[in-house]
Design goal:
- By secondary structure, the protein is mainly α.
- 54% of the residues lie in helices and 5% in strands.
- The protein has 27 helices and 8 strands.
- A 4-stranded mixed β-sheet has the order 5-6-7-8, with helices on one face. The protein has a two-stranded antiparallel ribbon with strand order 1-2.
- Helix 25 links the parallel strand 6 and strand 7.
- Helix 8 runs antiparallel to helix 20.
């Protein structure tokens, strides 16, 4: 089934990537957009969820995919790909270890997850830039499972999540991700970020011997109630490392400061603290000056497989990899005292596995789309990159990465937006950068993993504090607060539910509220009405009128995208004829943040195709101000067309 699905996911021919050429009537800056619009609509982007089967890929298309990338050979921009892959690999090693600890796992589990995820998704995925591995978005759910059943149960969560992802691919649930509104996604990110930061305070300040807690409020209650256990050396190092990371990353963002601080911390733990002693020190001996990883994880070694977490009922693989007897470890923090048969059919494990599958798919698809948007002003084939992106292939590659992580006993993977952004900013050109990232990561992990036992928990906490901060998109929140107050309230409700109940429960609550608020928009069949006629004043010209007569929100903007795409096709087909487009929003009762972003992207393409665009915003002026960037007027008069004056 997986093979057939992946076969059909290759329906967009890589041989046709540059098959549509611009003619003399096409604007000079529009050839990539023209090729993107000419891409077969039936190839999956506009297909319905009930008809997932599309034209299968031919042998020639497979060969083209295997030997070319972005319309050129695999060797294109190889030096840029090597630089980006090496940079991301070094940063990913440190973050993988830190996030595995935050998820209730072991450093080795984070390393194994990052290794297999990088190798599989970069080779089989649709995105050229996505970096998949251990992420903060799943940390709270994985930590809840680890607290109840031990770190070994995390591998089973990844395995179950891969089964759910396979089902998502088969039933094309990846198309339903579009119905997760932006405010809900931001609220979920805020809740996860605050919970992640709160979970590091105790260990970062040197508090030893405290039982781990699940949830934001219990963690804060435990921290406040044990302030007398704070060790000055750990607290000082935590504050200094966090201040250095925040200051340096804001001043010199291109430098991988996470790697620099981690290397300095390992050197501090190894050279400056020779009296730290082994992890199994006598009880009468004073604790080390700094709380090091070696105290909780006595053995941190590189590996590609962690035995003891695969349920025995899995055909062929289970009996071979599952232990015959329960495991007993010297440290209760390092591994689970029981085997996988204890937790394999527990309802909460299945529930959190489903949650991890949903969140990882959501994060992966959003990360890939944001990575493509980062190339809007620099890539000549930007629109082709967006159109060639296949959510089905990305879902399948993510499911294979989760399956490999689960079989190998690692944590569940997902795309990391910060590392994906670093990959793009480091100069990555194609998926070859991801392959190089996997190779460099494997070599670096094999050499450097044993040194992580000397890293202080204070530095791990400072790194995760930076990750938490970057998880919140403050610019998007500012735009949301200004342009969509209802969406901002929805974001806050989702964040509160994530903190007080559960992160995945918060996502469900936010989604339910969003659909309840937009039930009327869901029932609107035709929110956008398009009419095209001869231009009244320009001989031979064409005028298109786009009227939004009903509410336009995340719930129905995807259905309206087809009508807007027809206008874009008409603009390109007009060639050198004068074409004007007028958008009327005066009768639009509601316009949310997602709909405004969709209109903004469409307006950019219309302007790029050479049409004159005017917008009558009505009461939605504040929310739609970003569209004025694409109006065919001088900068000093942009406000007038936004009010409907041409």
């Amino acid at each position: 089934t997986v093979s057939v699905l992946y076969w059909t996911s290759m329906s967009r021919s890589r041989a046709d990537y540059h098959s549509v050429d611009a003619d003399d009537s096409t604007p000079a800056d529009c050839p990539a957009l023209l090729r993107a619009v000419r891409w077969p609509r039936e190839a999956g982007v506009f297909a319905s969820m009930t008809d997932p089967w599309v034209r299968p890929a031919t042998a020639q298309e497979w060969w083209t995919f295997a030997t070319t990338t972005r319309g050129g050979p695999l060797s294109a921009h190889w030096l840029d790909n090597l630089k980006a892959g090496a940079t991301v690999a070094c940063v990913n090693l440190t973050l993988g270890v830190s996030l595995a600890i935050a998820s209730g796992g072991t450093p080795t589990q984070g390393m194994v997850c990052s290794l297999w995820s990088a190798a599989l998704t970069s080779t089989l995925g649709s995105s050229h830039f996505n970096v998949v591995g251990a992420t903060s978005a799943l940390s709270s759910m994985l930590e809840a499972v680890s607290l109840r059943y031990g770190p070994d149960a995390i591998g089973t969560v990844a395995l179950y999540a891969s089964f759910f992802l396979f089902a998502f691919a088969f039933f094309r649930v990846d198309r339903a991700i579009r119905y997760v509104p932006t405010p809900v996604a931001h609220g979920f990110a805020i809740g996860v970020a605050i919970m992640l930061a709160a979970g590091q305070l105790a260990t970062a300040c040197g508090m030893r011997g405290l039982p781990r807690q699940n949830g934001f409020l219990p963690k804060m209650e435990q921290f406040v109630g044990n302030l007398d256990l704070i060790r000055p050396a750990d607290a000082t190092l935590f504050a200094a490392a966090a201040a250095a990371l925040f200051a340096c990353t804001s001043r010199w963002p291109r430098v991988p400061w996470v790697l620099v601080v981690a290397a300095a911390a390992v050197a501090l733990g190894y050279f400056a603290l020779p009296h730290a002693g082994p992890a199994a020190a006598p009880k009468h001996q004073a604790p080390p000056l700094l709380f090091l990883l070696r105290e909780r994880y006595p053995s941190i070694e590189p590996a590609v497989f962690i035995p003891g977490s695969v349920p025995s009922w899995i055909p062929v693989i289970g009996p071979l990899l599952s232990p015959q007897a329960p495991r007993h470890c010297a440290s209760a923090h390092a591994c689970s005292p029981t085997g996988p048969e204890t937790w394999q059919f527990q309802p909460d494990v299945v529930f959190y596995s489903f949650g991890c599958a949903v969140v990882s798919l959501l994060e992966t698809l959003i990360s890939a789309q944001i990575a493509n948007r980062m190339l809007r002003r620099t890539a000549d084939d930007f629109d082709l990159l967006c159109r060639a992106f296949s959510t089905l292939r990305e879902t399948l590659s993510l499911s294979l990465a989760a399956f490999a992580s689960g079989i190998c006993g690692a944590i569940c993977p997902a795309a990391a937006l910060a590392r994906t952004s670093l990959n793009v900013k480091s100069g990555a050109f194609s998926r070859v950068a991801g392959v190089m990232h996997a190779v460099v990561f494997a070599v670096a992990a094999w050499v450097l993993m044993p040194l992580f036992e000397y890293m202080p928990f204070a530095v791990v906490g400072s790194i995760l504090l930076l990750v938490s901060y970057r998880l919140i998109e403050f610019d998007e929140l500012a735009a949301l607060r200004k342009g969509d107050p209802a969406g901002m309230y929805l974001c806050l409700l989702t964040a509160i539910a994530s903190l007080t109940v559960d992160s995945f429960a918060g996502l469900l609550v936010g989604g339910a509220i969003a659909f309840a608020m937009n039930a009327r928009a869901l029932a609107v069949p035709d929110a956008v009405r398009v009419s095209t006629d001869e231009h009244r004043y320009v001989p031979g010209g064409i005028h298109a009128s786009v009227a939004v007569a009903e509410s336009l929100t995340f719930a129905n903007v995807q259905r309206a995208a087809g009508e807007l795409e027809d206008v874009l096709v008409a603009v390109i087909d007009a060639g050198d004829r004068y074409f004007s487009v007028h958008v009327d929003l005066t009768r639009c009762e509601e316009l949310d943040f997602d709909a405004a972003e969709a209109l903004d992207d469409w307006a950019r393409k219309v302007r790029l195709a050479g049409a004159k665009l005017t917008v009558d915003c009505g009461i939605h002026l504040v929310r739609i101000l970003s569209i004025t960037e694409h109006l065919n007027v001088p900068p000093e008069t942009k406000a007038e067309p936004a009010l409907g004056k041409s």
